[in-house]
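To illustrate the input format used throughout this study, we show a single complete record. The first block contains the structure-token representation of the backbone; no residue identities are included at this stage. The design step must infer an amino acid for every position from geometry alone.
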């Protein structure tokens, strides 16, 4: 049996448990109960089915970019400064021939900006994203190199560490351009 537990309940359990090593978890169709020592927390379960997130992750990618995280972060931050007025929209263009990733953004009062970084690119491609979402994931990943992949302008973009078996996969949905 599977269940959807509210995040606020898990946060409360985490705060209340402290250093306790043994927690008993009981649940039925509508409630969950966390017991430890003399403490008991009961919460209602969220009614419904959680969507299968694995269906969102593309199995293959037309365009795959392997780039140093520091370079990608730098050009994204520059583009984000210009993109603030336009809802954070930035256009990422990959050029296989030139091995260049460029990020273009526009600010009505400041003008336009195109920042570039060298990268290993499998195929030409272009996608428009919200710069804030990209900046957030780049701040989380610890690896020196990352893989950024996508399948055209409207398919989900995937960001992973450049390792054989990455522990973290991040999905960003593109903006309609």
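Output of the design step:
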């Amino acid at each position: 049996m599977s269940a959807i537990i509210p995040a606020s309940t898990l946060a409360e359990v985490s705060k209340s448990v402290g250093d306790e090593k043994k927690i008993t978890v009981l649940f039925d169709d509508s409630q969950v109960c966390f017991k430890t020592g003399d403490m008991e927390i009961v919460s209602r379960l969220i009614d419904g089915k959680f969507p299968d997130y694995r269906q969102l992750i593309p199995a293959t990618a037309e365009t795959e970019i392997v780039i140093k995280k520091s370079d990608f972060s730098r050009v994204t931050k520059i583009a984000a400064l210009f993109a603030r007025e336009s809802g954070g929209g930035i256009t990422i263009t990959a050029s296989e021939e030139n091995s260049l990733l460029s990020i273009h953004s526009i600010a009505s009062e400041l003008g336009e900006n195109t920042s570039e970084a060298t990268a290993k690119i499998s195929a030409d491609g272009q996608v428009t994203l919200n710069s804030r979402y990209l900046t957030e994931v780049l701040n989380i990943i610890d690896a020196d190199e990352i893989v950024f992949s996508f399948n055209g302008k409207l398919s989900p973009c995937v960001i992973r560490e450049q390792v054989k078996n990455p522990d973290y996969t991040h999905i960003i949905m593109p903006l309609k351009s």
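Structural context for interpreting the output: The longest strand covers residues 100-107. The chain is about 20% helix and 40% strand.
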